[in-house]
């Protein structure tokens, strides 16, 4: 028997960013030009990729946190003003992801280059009686970073026009995961992920590795969520009751 990936019955649906940090399968209906969320990204104060203090990557006396960082609780960034968060209401049924996960962002920056990090997260219930340590846990299911200068070509990077709404596609690759009833689906967007990835100066320079100190600058990043600019994450979901025997 040949198994297909994604499964034939998988259906692509969009999780749309909405006002008040809500995430929904319904597309935005507002035409308001200010339907957007913003944050200030500062290369001097980057978002860490795991809880600080970040320990030695390969310590000699213990395994270290590097080996498990992908499944560590993401709540350590929840209070940061430079991380945007949207989440669904509590799920009434199990929801199965089986296939691609691609963020479709409509965004602008006051700089001339920007990184976009997107995370798909499984938010556990506030109380998990079976294991209290999982209460409210935020488990990262898919993640990726995209450097804006490569939006049109990896061979010919180009500056971003400041303050202009620009589409960005961030491929989070594929996922095979069940969001259980009682959980929530969360999406986070940020512009630094240090020291997992080098800092973007946020000013376009031909070679980031040759950027001067003065090139590193704060920038205001804005993610839009209107009818004209419906930022979302496209996800392959399985129907609630797939036909038996289909692969």
Under CATH, the homologous superfamily reads Galactose-binding domain-like
Structural class per helix/strand content? mainly beta
- Sheet-strand content, in percent, reads 25-35%
What quaternary form is this?
A: single chain
Beta strands, count: 11
Unreliable stretches (pLDDT < 50, length at least 5) are 242-247
What is the alpha-carbon Rg in Å?
Answer: 19 Å
Indicate the CATH topology.
Answer: Jelly Rolls
Largest sheet: 7 strands, antiparallel
Which bin fits the share of residues in helices?
under 10%
Globally, the shape reads globular
Summed up, the domain count is 1
| Total count of helical runs of at least 4 residues | 0
Mean pLDDT equals 93
CATH architecture: Sandwich
Detailed description of the structure:
- The chain is an all-beta fold and about 250 residues long.
- It has strands at about 10-15, 25, 35-40, 85, 95-110, 115-125, 140-145, 165-180, 185-190, 220-225, 230-235.
- It has one domain (about 10-55, about 80-235): Galactose-binding domain-like (Jelly Rolls, Sandwich), CATH 2.60.120.
- Helix content is about 0%, strand content about 35%.
- The strands form two sheets. Strands 1, 2, 3, 5, 8, 10 and 11 form a seven-stranded antiparallel β-sheet that branches. The chain has a four-stranded antiparallel β-sheet with strand order 4-9-6-7, with no helix packed on it.
- Strand 1 and strand 2 (about 25) form a beta hairpin.
- Mean pLDDT is about 95; it is low at about 240-245.
